[in-house]
Amino acid sequence: MLGDGSELAAGQERRLGDGIARQLYRDPDYLDDPVLLEYVQTLWDALRAAARAQGELAPELDERFAWEVLLGRDRTVNAFALPGGYLGVHLGLIGVTASRDELASVLAHELSHITQRHIARLIAQQGRQTPLVLGALVLGALAASKNPDAAQALAIGGQALAVQNQLNFSRDMEREADRVGFALMDPAGFAPQGFVAMFEKLQQANRINDNASWPYLRSHPLTTQRIADVQARLPVGAARPAAPGLEHALLAARARVLARPGVDVLRQWMAEPQAADFAGQPQARRAGALYAAALAARELGEPARAQRLVGDLQESVGPDAAAQRQVRLLAAELALARGDAAGALKLLPPAGGRPELLLRTQAQLRGGTAPDIAGPLQTWVAGHPGDAGAWQQLASVWHAQGQVLRAVRAEAEAQAARYDYAAAVDRLKAGQDLARQSRAAADHVEASIIDTRLRAMESLLREQAAER
User: How far apart are CA 172 and CA 170, in angstroms?
Assistant: First the structure.
């Protein structure tokens, strides 16, 4: 690790990151897409486990930091590490990567900025600023990466230079993040060649002059030495990267469609499987194009066409289990979009990950089935209390069941999960008002829980205000 002159304790950095995350959760571009989020978070968690095993991740950081991925519905190619272990990823980055190894190489680099305390040291350079100002500077830099004019709305006190430089790491830090990140790839289950392939992509984008669609090149300048260093780390005679995996091809296509490229582009993608030379394309290329076409058809309001394309897609991916799962999830989404809740449920097994859980709940709500819809969600949030999306869906379930007090508490928990303690306090106080009007025995138990959570939220809100 480069000289550790950080003046920012891990707890301080986490609180600063929480404040920045709170603002990003409110950003219209923030996207909680269960399918993409699960995929990226899985890669991130594997790299984090490798960093822990390699001794690159200090136990204090491992315990205190959030290690959460935040997706942005943005077509630009960008990713950024934030204070406190948060990772921001634009859909544009996922969409341009040809393999999970390429995507993992960017995540490994960003993870290493966090584990090597690069962010803490950069923030320490602004040591005279309050946490509120520091948070605004980071948010300003992120806004500038998407729209240079937008940075002015977030920068405080004319700190233009600080906004520009807040997320710009030194050349030594960049090389260290490359070295540490590269060493994490193989232990985490990724091909190190993905690092080289991604660098080649960045280099090509650099040669044709960045036209603002690759902000990653501005916040992480690519140098000849960085490229040479990474290429030199590959063993002599190392094999070329394996063919792109089908699952990644499908999810890269999903990212491109959900980034809202415009109606004309969606129509082009929807028509691509009809091209004369389509059958001769590599399998991953065909599968990705069929996935994009089906999802584009849904976005364009053509459910029958989307359903036909999903049938073709299922044949295209063959027996690949991970790809078949993604096809089933897409088919269930399309069934829900056309109002076929029963059809969606047939595609979603009771066991599964977060995407299956949330889709099953939506289908059960619409179909009016399964009286214990709330049970699986309650089990999930018990193990994942920071999952705002699951809490919000649980609130919808309880509203549908007439359990208003529980629903209000779940809404408060959803706000708390996104660090909006003021909104959480408001919902819990509303719950107290409702409890006073109720005479049901079950509501008295819920009222007691609400009182306890309200005291906790008020305490967190006071701490949050004090930091400002």
Answer: 5
Helix (H) or strand (E) holding 441: helix 441-467
User: What gap in Å lies between CA 449 and CA 9, rounded to an integer?
Assistant: 33
Which tokens hold the place of 352?
């599964």
Q: Do 228 and 250 lie in a common domain?
A: no
79: its two tokens? 């990713």
Among 29, 28, 74, which residue's Cα sits nearest to residue 261? 74
Please name which of 43, 71, 352 lies closest in space to residue 188, comparing C-alpha atoms.
43
User: Is the domain of 301 the same as that of 431?
Assistant: no
Per the listing, tokens 């950003």 go with: 27
**pLDDT tens per residue, range 274-290:** 999 999 999 999 999 99
Here the tokens at position 9 are: 């304790």
| Per-residue pLDDT tens digits for 422-442 | 999 999 999 999 998 877 766
Q: Residue 88: helix, strand or coil by DSSP? A: strand
Predicted structure pTM score: 0.90
Residue 82 host element (H or E): strand 79-82
CA distance 190 to 294: 29
SS3 249: helix
Same domain, 42 and 169: yes
